[in-house]
Specification:
The complex is a heterodimer of chains A (474) and B (241). Chain A is built from 15 helices and 16 strands. Chain A is of the alpha+beta class and 474 residues long. Chain A has a five-stranded antiparallel beta sheet with strand order 3-2-1-15-16, with helices on one face. Chain A has a four-stranded mixed beta sheet with strand order 8-7-6-11. Chain A is globular, with a radius of gyration of 22 Å. The mean pLDDT of chain B is 94. In chain B, a hairpin with a 6-residue loop joins strand 8 and strand 9. The longest helix of chain B is centred in the middle third of the chain and has 17 residues, at 79-95. Chain B has two domains: 3-77, Ubiquitin-like (UB roll), CATH 3.10.20; 97-233, Alpha-Beta Plaits (2-Layer Sandwich). Chain B is of the alpha+beta class and 241 residues long. In chain B, the strands form three sheets. A five-stranded mixed beta sheet of chain B has the order 2-1-5-3-4, with helices on both faces. In chain B, strands 6-7-10 form a three-stranded antiparallel beta sheet. A two-stranded antiparallel sheet of chain B has the order 8-9. The chains are: A alpha+beta (474), B alpha+beta (241). Chain A binds chain B through residues 48-50, 52-53, 55-57, 60, 164, 166, 169-171, 174, 361, 389-391, and chain B through 101-102, 104, 133-134, 136-137, 142, 187, 210-216.
């Protein structure tokens, strides 16, 4: 008899979700779906607001990556004003985005995912969290927490607060870096580099014992998308979009992000509040693409900074063509932390960071503006249409987690096929399936427009809809 | 002019005849919460935040429009007054759509700071969630009716200080709202001189400089006082040496 297993909610991710696993009559997994069960609605209730308020409103979408929404929103505003912002403002925005990448990646790695692969899949569930990590290795946990704090400090030094700073504005930013702020960042950098090195050592050791996970945690063909510079270097705030396929071949390059709607389609599933974007020239399902750290490293030819470039070379050897295992998102995250730290170090020596020419001024010069920035989880699009007075008529947000939706579904199905047999659902199996989702570090609050924490529930449901077995936790 | 002697919060004070209780209290160093009052323009007693108790008068009276009288005994702070002030503030918040976190006036808003000072930690009334729009048609300024508390400061500075008479109130009750000229969009207003006094006078984020983002709207009211002093006393005191 065919059945459905439901994991509800999924834990240690940002937002509310559940997983359904469909079983065929022989007791094998036939398919799996990742459902996002929360709805935020920012696209709707921002209608009617002045576009210049959006960098104050949209960071409220998320407490983890408010900066991503802040920057994409300010950039959409730049496009409506049709201005080139002062160079110092661009550099300062980049500095904040780098701080954001460090803090969010450190959160994903140390707080959310490391308890699985450092403590072990079969660690009893009450200990398999950041507190268990503190009990097992207090120094490591503290270092991880402080690495996140380092990124948060950069955001606070520039924006006045760690969460929801309304610092970037259409046309530029509100204030520059201070010398005191620079000195604080500079003094903290050596510790941040050292913690990143510890994380690299740990993860490389983890890889030796987790070959199976690399094989089955989201290891499949897909496209990858991310921003690159003109010469194909890793980019996080400017540049143009590039798609590569799983062989590593570039299938589209230097696409203008302002015209994303010409090559990205959005499909809707009745089972989730999350939209599923795809590369429209290939249609569904071939147009499935992944974004985020793994994708950015797959599209980039180099990082542009020496230490991270050395790591990128090692990373690229892990795939034939593109690196296709989603388990290696964790690895990519560490390389991005390293690159971010190196770029941050560079910016500290740039005298322009202290400029007082920070804001361009203009009226409404375009009735539509798209802002694109690489959020920690992947490429973020804010697309605003305004009337002649600058009031929003339409808002479209394409968020990283949505773009990974199709890949997350496939990852869950792939892991479930390896671990689920028959009616029994052992808890560590559930955790492995959840981890497939954690690899992507999804942020559902960002992508559906609701907040909260996630306990989890798995149900075995027969084809006639009756519940055969149910496990609830959290 | 004859002086009147009165008692405010147990303090014996004297005030000029014709002065309001608010002025007398201010001179005596007694702080009464206000919202629609603005130095330099006439008072209308619209917000009811400055209500005080006067011995022998059963109802509460607004300090800003009540004149001092000989032997008056006034209380500006009591359990009853605090109750009414909180109620007034909560009703103001419930009436329209005040979202401090993303408001241009966050941190510089008189409604917000009064709510903090009066210990308002929640609103007991159901929010109205009315549908109001933003008038962003003016070249320099915007008006968000969602954040308007109808204090009419903008109307009074426009008529009394600038003399243009652009701003008015239309409608009644819950439908009352600030209009420009004969209820046209602000950008089309013939009388508006673009002086910006209304924007400086606004206590909340309802009137703002176009282009402002969250918490960016700070106001400078010293210019309003400067103008009034210059006109009435022929003294041009800029506050700068």
């Amino acid at each position: 008899m065919s059945k459905r297993i439901v994991i509800d909610p999924v834990t240690r991710i940002e937002g509310h979700a559940k997983i359904s696993i469909f079983m065929d009559d022989a007791g094998n997994v036939s398919d799996a779906e990742f459902h996002v069960v929360e709805f935020r609605g920012f696209e709707k209730f921002c209608e009617g607001r002045p576009y210049h308020e959006m960098p104050g409103i949209t960071p409220r979408i998320c407490g983890i990556c408010p900066v991503s929404h802040l920057l994409a929103s300010a950039k959409a505003g730049d496009a409506i004003m049709a201005v080139n912002i002062p160079p110092a403002a661009d550099k300062l925005r980049r500095l904040m985005n780098l701080g954001q990448l460090v803090q969010s990646h450190a959160l994903s790695f140390f707080h959310l995912s490391a308890p699985d692969f450092l403590l072990g899949w079969d660690t009893p569930q009450p200990q398999r969290n950041v507190f268990g990590l503190i009990a097992a290795n207090a120094d490591l946990a503290r270092a991880g927490i402080r690495l996140r704090q380092f990124g948060q400090e950069i955001i606070e030094i520039l924006g006045g607060k760690k969460i929801h700073p309304a610092w970037a504005v259409p046309g530029g930013v509100r204030n520059a870096l201070t010398e005191a702020g620079r000195d604080k960042i500079r003094a903290w950098l050596p510790e941040a580099f050292a913690t990143t090195q510890v994380a690299f050592n740990l993860f490389k050791k983890t890889l030796e014992t987790h070959k199976r996970e690399v094989q089955i945690f989201g290891n499949f063909s897909s496209l990858f998308m991310g921003l690159v510079t003109e010469d194909g270097t890793w980019e996080h705030h400017g540049g143009n979009l590039r798609f590569v396929d799983s062989s590593g071949s570039i299938i589209a390059d230097q696409l203008d992000p302002q015209r994303y709607f010409e090559y990205i389609g959005e499909s809707v599933q009745s089972s989730s509040y999350l939209k599923s974007p795809y590369y429209s020239p290939l249609g569904m399902p071939d147009g499935m693409y992944r974004v985020g750290p793994l994708a950015r490293l797959n599209v980039a030819e180099q990082m542009g900074v020496p230490k991270a470039d050395a790591e990128l070379k090692l990373f690229k050897k892990m795939g034939r063509g593109a690196v296709s295992s989603s388990f290696l998102y964790h690895y990519a995250r560490l390389i991005e932390i390293l690159a971010s730290l190196e770029y941050i170090e560079r910016y500290l020596d740039d005298p322009e960071m202290f400029s007082d020419y920070l804001r361009a001024d203009a009226g409404i010069n375009s009735l539509r503006g798209v802002g694109v920035s690489e959020a920690p989880r992947g490429t973020l699009f804010h697309d605003y249409t305004v009337d002649r007075n600058g009031l929003l008529k339409k808002v479209n947000l394409i968020v990283a987690t949505g773009q990974n939706n199709l890949a997350m579904n496939q990852t869950v199905a792939q892991i479930a096929r390896h671990y689920v047999r028959g009616n029994d659902i052992p808890e560590p199996m559930l955790n492995r399936i959840e981890h497939g989702i954690r690899c992507y570090d999804p942020c559902l609050s960002c992508s559906t427009h609701a907040v909260g924490q996630m306990p989890m529930q798995v149900r075995l449901i027969s084809a006639d809809g009756s519940v055969l077995n149910e496990t609830v936790r959290g | 002019m004859a002086a009147k002697t009165l008692t405010i919060d147990g303090k014996q004070i004297s005030a000029e005849e014709g002065a309001t209780v608010l002025q007398a209290a201010d001179e005596a160093g007694v702080k009464i919460p206000t919202l629609c009052h603005l130095d330099g323009v006439y008072d209308v007693g619209a917000c009811r935040l400055c209500l005080v108790e006067i011995a022998g008068v059963p109802k509460l009276l607004p300090a800003c429009t009540t004149q001092v009288a000989e032997g008056m005994v006034i209380h500006t702070d009591s359990e009853r007054l605090r109750k009414y002030r909180r109620m007034t503030l909560e009703l103001l918040f419930a009436e329209r759509n005040h979202v401090c976190a993303v408001c241009v006036a966050n941190g510089h808003c008189e409604l917000q700071s009064l709510a903090y000072n009066q210990g308002m930690d929640h609103v007991r009334y159901e929010y109205n969630f009315p549908k109001w729009s933003v008038d962003n048609t003016h070249r320099l300024f915007g008006m968000d009716h969602n954040r308007c508390i109808l204090c009419t400061r903008c109307v009074r500075v426009c008529w009394h200080i600038e003399g243009a008479g652009t701003k008015n109130v239309a409608g009644r009750g819950g439908k009352a709202h600030i209009i420009s000229d004969l209820n046209m969009s602000w950008g089309q207003s013939y009388s508006c001189t673009e002086c910006g006094k209304c924007v400086q006078a606004c206590p909340t984020g309802a009137l703002f400089h176009k282009g402002s983002t969250a918490a960016e709207m700070e106001r400078d009211r010293t210019r309003l006082e400067f103008l009034v002093t210059a006109r009435e006393k022929k003294q041009w005191i800029t506050g700068e040496e």
